[in-house]
Design a protein that fits this description.
The complex is a heterodimer of chains A (about 190) and B (about 375). With about 190 residues, chain A is an alpha/beta fold. Chain A is about 25% helix and about 20% strand. Chain A has a domain of about 120 residues: NADH:ubiquinone oxidoreductase Nqo5 subunit (Beta Polymerase, domain 2), CATH 3.30.460. The longest helix of chain B has 29 residues. Chain B is α+β, with helices and mostly antiparallel strands and about 375 residues long. Chain B is built from 15 helices and 11 strands. The chains are: A alpha/beta (about 190), B alpha+beta (about 375). The interface between A and B is large, with 54 and 62 residues.
């Protein structure tokens, strides 16, 4: 009897309209006949080839992997986010891999509406790694890019606030997650 | 790093909360810009407990690295281990026996309840109520005792291994779990009487920290933080693993998007976990608890990603393998890291006193954020 369900949309900071939109979202999510069109890897491949003919694909894994040129990333990202049939609104993982000869940026994208997933990869030059930021498209990218910036030294162009996040201020020298990083004092290898 | 405490030219005041502050539940440092009592900006500074787990894992074998991950989100240690074990199994393409699957799910759900219990007690304490903490720990202790008997540890269990679980259940497990269920059901109404229905508590929780569904997805929120805004994101439901697709439970959703909605999600989620445990506790299949795997595990060349639902949200384990006995690169996509990034967004314009309530409902665990 004490359990009082929160009144949705009864207050100034939570306007009726927004709570209503949230409700609509749930209805869409549960109604499988309605808005949800999950594309298979094959369909995604066709669709993305239309958007970016230069993209190459890797298949065989769970999700479709797309390799792109660094310069194409920003425009592709915008299309992936805004296209209604793709609608990749959830960037659930953003990371980088050091392959010793080059770096690879890896973006895992998912659609909360259609429930399909893709992986976008882009090779970067190891000595001067630069790529456009996507922090204004997916806001979660702001923190993840800051992490990659300090751990791998990737420079994200036009990032709103590219500063050290985890490493202490005044950190100089190599980037910890690169393969050639050695720390004689704090041993992290067995 | 430590901005000078004082006033800026606009007349704003900058204060530091943490890194040693009881309300941050760990070493989190927030630099807060205030105009009077209104928050203009919250800037998290991280890294006080960064152990570079991702780098460490690169020199550990596929059996060893799982033990390190118990130290990430120490309140969901089982679920972290589970995610890693699943990822290695995906690479090895091994099926685990049904008994191990059921044991894993049981342990996951017990962990989820224990984690939410601690969150509930700690959050009430943040808001100035000390009694709920003891009530929460009463139930949580009995879960810890169950864990201790079967896994040999109370917090960092390291119980899940590639191929199943480390050892069979303790003979007392079923009996004690049923006792816990009874205890929980007998006491759960106290939670609502003490805290949920309390008018002071409700006034402090409702209408603060508003987060819309759109922003929740954009900021990468997951778990109760996103479900409080009506985003359906329970990995157990949308990308089921183990036996979750055969179980009956509901994904708990709220639409208000304020602190109280996030609070209610966790309270209701505990009841769903109880439901799952009740379905399984009498139906643990007989058989092996572990499938036979080689002593030294080698993953084929390739990339493997698994997603599981921890008590805080979506945990992703991304293994890049070169075909050796150690991973080439591991990335842990921790739920806390993304959930923290939304703090600045929801806190702007609120009063300083509400910040602690908002942080409480995001359920931040600092070792999970720092890794």
């Amino acid at each position: 009897m004490w359990l009082v369900a929160p009144k949705t949309g009864s207050v100034a900071s939570c306007p009726d309209k927004t709570a209503g939109e949230n409700k609509k979202r749930i209805d869409q999510g549960t109604n499988k006949k309605g808005q949800r069109i999950t594309m298979s890897n094959e369909e995604l491949k066709t669709k993305i080839t239309e958007l970016l003919p230069a993209a190459t694909f890797e298949e065989g894994g769970e999700w479709l992997n797309i390799n792109i040129e660094t310069k194409d990333w920003l425009s592709l990202a915008q299309q992936l986010r805004n296209d209604n049939s793709l609608f990749f609104d959830y960037l659930f993982c953003l990371t980088c891999i050091d392959w010793k000869t080059h770096l690879t940026m890896v973006y895992h994208l998912s659609s909360t509406q259609h429930r399909h997933n893709i992986v976008v990869k882009s090779k970067l030059d190891r000595n001067n790694p630069e790529i456009e930021t996507v922090a204004h498209i997916w806001k979660t990218a702001e923190f993840h890019e800051r992490e990659v910036y300090e751990m791998f030294g990737v420079n994200f162009l036009h990032h709103p606030d590219l500063r050290l996040l985890i490493l202490p201020d005044g950190w100089e020298g190599k980037n910890p997650l690169r393969k050639d990083f050695e720390d004689p004092i704090n041993m992290i290898k067995l | 790093m430590f901005e000078e405490v004082g006033t800026t030219i606009d007349g704003d005041m900058i204060i530091n909360v943490g890194p040693q502050h009881p309300a941050t539940h760990g070493v989190l440092h927030l630099v807060i810009t205030l105009n009077g009592e209104t928050i203009k900006k919250v800037e998290p500074h991280l890294g006080f407990i960064h152990r570079s787990i991702e780098k460490m894992c690169e020199s550990l074998s596929y059996r060893q690295f799982i033990y390190v991950t118990s130290r990430m989100d120490y309140l969901s240690a089982h679920i972290n281990n589970h995610a890693c074990a699943l990822c290695v199994e995906k690479g090895l393409q091994v099926e685990i026996p049904p008994r191990a699957q059921v044991i894993r799910v049981l342990m996951d759900e017990l962990t989820r309840i224990a984690s939410h219990e601690l969150w509930w007690g700690a959050m009430a304490m943040d808001l100035g109520a000390f009694t709920p903490f003891f009530h929460a720990f009463r139930e949580r202790e009995s879960i810890n005792d169950i864990m201790e008997e079967t896994c040999g540890a109370r917090l960092t269990m390291n119980y899940m291994v590639p191929g199943g679980v480390m050892q069979d259940l303790h003979p007392n497990f079923q009996k004690r779990t049923k006792e816990f269920l009874q205890l929980y059901k007998r006491k759960i109404h106290e939670y609502d009487e003490l805290v949920t229905g309390n008018i002071i508590f409700q006034n402090r929780m409702k209408n603060v920290g508003y987060l819309s569904a759109e922003d929740a997805v954009s900021y990468g929120c997951s778990g109760p933080a996103a479900r409080g805004s009506g985003v359906s994101c329970d990995i157990r439901k949308i990308y089921p693993y183990e036996i979750y697709d055969k179980l009956e439970f509901d994904e708990v959703l709220e639409t208000a998007g304020d602190s109280f909605a996030r609070y209610m999600i966790r309270i209701r989620e505990m009841q769903q976990s109880i439901r799952i445990i009740e379905q399984l506790i009498d139906n643990i299949p007989e058989g092996d608890f572990q499938t036979k795997t080689k002593a030294v595990l080698k993953l084929p060349k390739g990339e493997f990603y698994t997603r599981v639902e921890t008590a805080r949200g979506e945990l992703g384990v991304y293994i890049v393998s070169e075909g050796g006995t150690t991973p080439y690169r591991i990335k842990f996509r921790s739920p806390g890291f993304s959930n923290l990034s939304v703090l600045d967004h929801i806190a702007r314009g609120s009063k300083l006193g509400d910040l602690v309530a908002m942080m409480g409902t995001l359920d931040l665990v600092i070792p999970d954020i720092d890794r």
